Amino acid sequence: MNNHFLAHLPSRALPSRLLASGLCLGLLGILGVSIGSDLLVAPAVAEAQIPSTKEVSTQNLIGKWEGEFAPNKKITWVFTPEGKLFMLLPVPNEAPQLALEWHYHTDDSNKPMGLNIELKKGQTVMTIFEFVDDKQMRIQIEGTNPGDTRPNSFQNPTVFKKVSTDATLPPNTQIDEFDGKS
Questions:
Q1: Could you tell me the fold of the domain covering 5-42+52-164?
Q2: Distance between CA atoms of 143 and 69, rounded to whole angstroms?
Q3: Where are the domains of the chain?
Q4: What is the DSSP pairing of strand 136-139 with strand 113-120?
Q5: CA distance 137 to 182
Q6: Distances, alpha carbon 126 to alpha carbons 90, 105, 110, 140, 161, in Å
Q7: In this structure, what is the dihedral angle of CA atoms 8, 14, 18, 24, given to the nearest 10 degrees?
Q8: Could you state, in chain order, the average pLDDT of each consecutive group of 10 residues for the chain (182 residues)?
Q9: How far apart are CA 75 and CA 145, in angstroms?
């Protein structure tokens, strides 16, 4: 069962407004991927080996990150210094790149750190994240939905690897912009 905020994408071809009712990791449903705990990437490092999140600044979040939900099923998120989060959608080789625009805020006063992802006005997903090191982080996606309380601990987190410190999108990316969504 898809129990997270990313499972709310339409199951048909994406319309001109890409974000129908939730975070786009539901696009995995479009790809025919069922996200279950057996398909999620297990944390690469045991709990005891993860450094304090205070040792790595939230500034480290800026850049391009890739996570894997199933073999050969990657998801790419781009965090900008301006508080925008773009999710790059998989497209056929010759098609223009598509991206969803969200807003994000972090709270580094707790461990694990808080991550609020505003999908559209009034729909915020409150989750947690933690840097494993400066090139890897884990985010709790499973079990998170708009309006739910923030989880206190990780359960089957998604592991993201930093592929670039560059927070720019590929040329000619078509963006489903956040402005005015409600």
A1: Lipocalin (2.40.128)
A2: 15
A3: 5-42+52-164
A4: unpaired
A5: 30
A6: 25, 10, 13, 10, 21
A7: 40
A8: 55 35 36 37 40 60 88 88 92 86 93 93 92 93 93 94 95 80 56
A9: 18
